[in-house]
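#lab-general

N.A. 3:47 PM
ok so I finally got the sequence cleaned up, no stray characters, all 234 residues accounted for. can someone with queue access submit it? mine expired

B.Y. 3:52 PM
send it over

N.A. 3:53 PM
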Amino acid sequence: MNLNKKRAIVFGGTSGIGRATSIALMAQGAEVHVVSRHAEALNDLPETIRRYNCDVCDEDTVRATFASIGPLDIIISSATGGSRTLSHFPEMDMASYRDSFAKLWGYAHVVRHGLEWLRESGAIVLVSGSPARRCDPGQVALSSVGAAIEAMVRGVAKEIVPRRINALCPGLIDTPILQKKGADRVEHYKQLTEGNLVPRPGTPEECAHGILFLLENEFVTGTVLDIDGGRLLS
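B.Y. 4:20 PM
back already:
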């Protein structure tokens, strides 16, 4: 797929991987529409990017957002849709565990209603996470949700031909979600990645590069692309 003049929508496009992808798409000449549940964050985007305030967990709003934009060539979602539950399973609050699946439901809303507007040559990319297939202690919720997203991608791919759907599976990425600053941030990343084959965190731009590959290569569908510095092998 040549991205020039393609119409793209990015859910969760105001920070981290989503923002980097929005900017990368714009650089390729795409018409970019960014969606975020954080209205104030939408102001911190390049002027040429269209912007919409929408929570992916609100199905009616997702449906209305697609209807207001019209036909699309590209749909991307990196929206979290809710809280990230980090807790050992025996002590985990079950309400928090259920809430962590808001990301899955949000993705389901995006795919279900986005397909109504996605052209036959179009493509979808969803962002999961490496705990989907390598779950460290405290990551049961992240692993469960990520694995469900990747299973959904494989199943949906068979049902939407000739349109395509893939998942990007990032490892530890240096994004604003980590609250630590300065030397504490550097040390924290060092501890978390020292066993990786590439012992450092990835960047949002490296993930965006992977997403563009999944969009541009029309022979790829129903698959998961790992951008994780070798975490799954470490």
